[in-house]
Amino acid sequence: VDLDTARQELEEFIPHVKNISDSSIKKMAGRDLMRFREFKKQGMAVKFGRFTQKENKQIRKNVEEFLALTGIDSAEKLLFTSRYPKDKHIIQRLKTEHHFCEKVSEGIPRPWRLIYYRARKMFDPNNYKGRYSMEEKEQLKKYQALHGNDWKKISELMSRSNLSVAMKFSEIKSAINYGPWTEEETRKLMSAVKDVMRTKLRTENSSSLSSLEESNADLWIDREQLYQPLPWTEIETKVGSRYWRQCKQKWNSILTNKLTRGQKLHKGTNGLRTKISLIKRLYETKAEDASEVNWDELSNAIGDVPRAYVQSKFYRLKVSFVPLWKRRTFSEIIDYLYENTLPELEEKL
């Protein structure tokens, strides 16, 4: 399939395909297009977002079957081959001969790249090391001074995942202020978010942005774009006095306040109504996993708030009302809230 045809056909499955580079389109044409066609025949849509428990089990099954097929003795060797330079060529040959890409993504209606990243996260022993000790934090600072932001190199030296060392260093270097946000900090945050959104829009649609700028109109960012993931470590750097997670929480708070025009959804009678409505609507979805919930649709129904507001509201509900919630499945948590917590809240209201 030629490049233009592949891009055109992939657009049916991946709406944002016009923003994907030619080299990535070529890889997707080889690894994904045939699979997507098969899923379409079966009436299955291509999925994005959080992986379900069912999909995680399928990835685990696919990896274990590929190990049995090839004789490679560990998932770490299979998915982090560069950590084993002596075995690298043999492992790469086996992966090619036995169609690694196709086997690992079998039965999962998602782009292969996302499945691969998910498998690496699941099987990386360095992902589950717990809290950083003081010695590790000092090590991390020294390695960053030596190697800059080469997180792959630093992750190997520390036996931690790339993401873990990058985010931990971001936390360490931040001049964290735990007090209330000042007006100046809030202005910096708003400006930083606007800057990154402007850059993002310029990359995605330069013609419409330039016409906006030429007319001196204020940059319009619609609701959908506001909810997209933002580069929080970059925003943290621009704010200067807050850790990235604080910036994210504050931004969600600002969005909630603006979209609800300052209504106190989380307090008093309104707070009870919000909890009751959320439990009922989650129960009606009959979702088996959090990733099956359309949080944007739910946030609209609750009161035109950001999805992060609804997700944090649900988190507080399960922590506050569901005993041993960590041991329960998503659907068991919803059932408990509906059967036990809902009547209490309605009586209180």
UniProtKB/TrEMBL annotation:
Pfam families: Myb_DNA-bind_6 (PF13921). GO terms for biological process: termination of RNA polymerase I transcription. GO terms for cellular component: nucleolus. GO terms for molecular function: chromatin binding. It comes from Hypocryptadius cinnamomeus. Residues 173-255 form the Myb-like domain. This is TTF1 factor.
